[in-house]
Specification:
Structural class: mainly alpha
Helix content: over 70%
Strand order of the largest sheet: 1-2
Number of helices: 11
Shape: globular
Oligomer: single chain
Length: 330
């Protein structure tokens, strides 16, 4: 069915799959590496000096701006690459999906107020755990034994990473599982629900990546816009930017790298499948942790490094061996 689409068209440089993969890989890697640096700079940086020093505490407004930029970017992509291709997906499905999508992003950004960036990245890397739990409980899926072993490896790595022996009671923030970790758990669960909803949309309505990106982000913009107006956070944010105008540049770049990164991820899934995409994003996350340690001085113990390696080993093996046989569509 799809084979006849390109018939009669001259071969272009973009038809070279190796070049296409290099573009997708570098796109994901560069965009999200810089995105991670900007996220840590914005959310964990100190603003002002002396007694006037303050922290950025506007996670919802940050995600609101991110969703606006994502929506505009997706609209441009549809305009230039898809034209008037109809989208038959139900609006209420986009609305429901947007709730879990923005909840995951707000929880993830808020977690950075309580945990360092390597912890946040590692926590978000454990997405196979809620996806598998939700798959078993909601969709009644059956997974191969390799999948369970990979998830066990990931859980073991996270446990080692979070384990902190009580060396001194004087260290006040030496906690094993605090509010930041709870926010990451919430974010992971909502990520899993988003994945289930997106799978349903793709299977039932053949929703394209760009239409999904546009509509989910538009719904998220609407919901978050009402939330930041209702709580008054948007006015506090504007007051904060008046005191520290330089943050606008970082927020704009943060939104642009997010939109570009999402585009390259969708391209990787479309051209090379979710397996290749998961390997690319897993590799990127490991180097993001490495970059955070080097650039921001986030010191990690030997046990934490060992836990990190276990997590990414589990993710890599899951990408390679944890996929069951493809289900036939009914």
């Amino acid at each position: 069915m799809a084979a006849g689409k390109g018939a009669g068209k001259p071969a272009s440089l973009w038809d070279n799959m190796r070049l296409r993969f290099i573009v997708c890989f570098l796109g994901v890697f560069v965009c999200y590496f810089y995105y991670g640096i900007l996220q840590e700079t914005i959310t964990r940086g100190d603003y002002g000096q002396g007694e006037k020093k303050e922290k950025f505490r506007f996670a919802r407004t940050l995600v609101f701006i991110q969703c606006i930029i994502n929506s505009l970017f997706a609209k441009l992509l549809i305009q230039f690459f898809e034209g008037s291709k109809p989208d038959h997906t139900k609006s209420w499905l986009y609305g429901l999906c947007s709730l879990s999508y923005l909840g995951a992003m707000v929880s993830s950004n808020s977690a950075l107020l309580y945990v360092n960036y390597p912890t946040q990245v590692l926590g978000k890397s454990c997405k196979p755990i809620p996806v598998m739990i939700l798959g078993v409980t909601i969709l009644r899926k059956k997974y191969p034994m390799a999948k369970y072993l990979c998830v066990l490896l990931i859980v073991s790595g996270v446990a080692l990473f979070l384990y902190k022996p009580n060396k001194s009671s004087a260290v006040t923030d030496d906690h094993v599982f605090g509010f930041g970790e709870i926010l990451l758990l919430v974010s992971l669960t909502l990520d899993g629900l988003t994945g289930v909803a997106q799978d349903h949309m793709r299977a039932r309505f053949q929703t394209s990546a760009n239409h999904m990106m546009l509509n989910i982000n538009m719904w998220s913009t609407l919901v978050l816009g009402l939330a930041v107006l209702w709580t008054g956070e948007v006015w506090e944010f504007l007051s904060f930017t008046e005191r520290h105008p330089s943050i606008f540049y970082n927020i704009l770049l943060f939104g642009l790298t997010s939109a570009l990164g999402q585009t390259f991820i969708f391209m990787t899934v479309v051209y090379f499948g979710p397996l290749t995409c998961s390997i690319v994003t897993t590799t990127r996350k490991f180097f993001t942790i490495l970059g955070s340690v080097i650039l921001f001085g986030n010191v990690m113990s030997t046990m934490q490094w060992f836990g990190t390696v276990l997590v990414f080993l589990g993710l890599g093996l899951d990408a390679k061996f944890g996929k069951g046989p493809k289900k036939t569509t009914h």
